[in-house]
Each structure stands twice: as structure tokens, then as C-alpha cells.
């Protein structure tokens, strides 16, 4: 897996803290820093997600992917899955994630709660590289609700 991240301020007319990531699979992702009123030259323009937001979003995508796949492989009639991530970060540099809570909402027909619980556990203990990696610095907790379709 590879990715090239380039600063957009290096070639653009405007300075700032925008970046474009070009992934090995041929996709593009924009990132930007938060505006800095005290030192505008050090801040972003709020045109895209922050880099750490993309880390959190990628982790949510990784674990939701696992949960859906595990439920489908178990022949459950899963029709929707979302995960809301809330986090806390260290106050000092490096500002790593220290707490992450993932609340899953799974929609389907006749899915047992135990199957959802098992899918989430398997994702976090075995399959989701992102959450397992972030679990080295963050306390990760999960919860879920099951909605009948």
C-alpha cells in the first residue's frame, strides 16, 4: 500500500496548510488544517477534513466494513450499518487519541443482537487494523443499537 501526500500551498497562489493525498488505488483525498487567527500563515482554510479527522474516519470505515462483512458471511439480512465515533486526544504533543467510543447502528431483518456483538468484537480483536493500531494509545469502547428493517 502506498500514498503520496503533497502540500497544496507549495504551488498554489494562496499559502495555507492544505494537502492532497493520492492513494495507490488511484483516489484523491483532500485535507486541510484549522484556521489560525493568531498566525494565519500557519493555519488552514477549513476547506477539507483535518488529517486526524481522516484517521478517525478511516478507522470507522475499517470497522464498519468488517461488521457488515462478518454479518453477511453469517447469512444475516443486514441492510444498513453506521458507526458514530467520538474521541478524546492528548493535550500535549504528540496529540494522540486517548479515548475512542464507537457506537454502531445496524439495521436488518431478524439479526440477533449476539451476532452484532460478535461481529464488533471480531473486528476489534482480529480484523480492523486501524482500530487495533489506535488501541495502542487509546482506550476503545463500543456500543450498538439494532434496528429492525
Overall 3D form: elongated
Instruction: Please name the fourth-level CATH homologous superfamily of the largest domain.
Output: K homology (KH) domain
Helix content: 25-40%
Report the span from N to C terminus. 37 Å
Uncertain segments: none
CATH architecture of the largest domain: 2-Layer Sandwich
The CATH topology of the largest domain is given as GMP Synthetase, Chain A, domain 3
CATH first level of the largest domain: which class? Alpha Beta
Rg (CA only): 18 Å
The DSSP helix count reads 3
Tally of distinct domains? 2
Biggest sheet statistics:
3 strands, antiparallel
Number of strand elements: 6
Strand content: 25-35%
Helix-and-strand structural type = alpha+beta
Q: How do the strands of the widest beta sheet line up side by side?
A: 1-2-3
Helix-strand pattern, N to C? EEEHEEHHE
User: Could you report the average pLDDT, rounded to the nearest whole number?
Assistant: 94
Description of the structure:
It is built from three helices and six strands; from the N terminus they run βββαββααβ. Strands 1-2-3 form a three-stranded antiparallel β-sheet, with no helix packed on it. A three-stranded mixed β-sheet has the order 4-5-6, with helices on one face. The model has no long low-confidence stretch (mean pLDDT 94). The protein has two domains: 3-42; 51-148, 2-Layer Sandwich (GMP Synthetase, Chain A, domain 3), CATH 3.30.300. It has helices at residues 51-73, 113-127, 129-134, and strands spanning 3-7, 18-23, 28-32, 77-89, 97-109, 139-148. With 149 residues, it is an alpha+beta fold. The protein starts with a strand and ends with a strand. A hairpin with a 4-residue loop joins strand 2 (18-23) and strand 3 (28-32). The radius of gyration is 18 Å and the shape is elongated.
Amino acid at each position: 500500500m502506498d500514498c503520496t501526500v503533497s502540500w497544496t500551498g507549495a504551488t498554489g497562489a494562496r499559502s495555507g496548510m492544505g494537502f492532497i493525498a493520492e492513494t495507490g488505488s488511484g483516489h484523491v483525498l483532500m485535507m486541510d488544517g484549522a484556521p489560525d487567527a493568531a498566525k494565519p500563515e500557519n493555519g488552514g482554510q477549513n476547506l477539507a477534513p483535518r488529517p486526524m479527522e481522516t484517521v478517525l474516519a478511516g478507522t470507522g470505515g475499517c470497522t464498519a466494513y468488517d461488521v457488515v462483512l462478518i454479518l453477511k458471511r453469517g447469512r444475516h439480512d443486514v441492510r444498513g450499518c453506521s458507526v458514530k465515533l467520538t474521541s478524546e486526544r492528548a493535550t500535549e504533543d504528540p496529540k494522540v487519541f486517548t479515548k475512542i467510543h464507537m457506537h454502531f447502528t445496524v439495521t436488518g431483518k431478524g439479526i440477533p443482537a449476539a451476532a452484532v456483538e460478535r461481529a464488533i468484537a471480531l473486528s476489534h480483536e482480529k480484523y480492523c487494523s486501524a482500530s487495533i493500531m489506535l488501541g495502542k494509545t487509546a482506550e476503545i469502547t463500543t456500543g450498538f443499537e439494532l434496528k429492525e428493517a
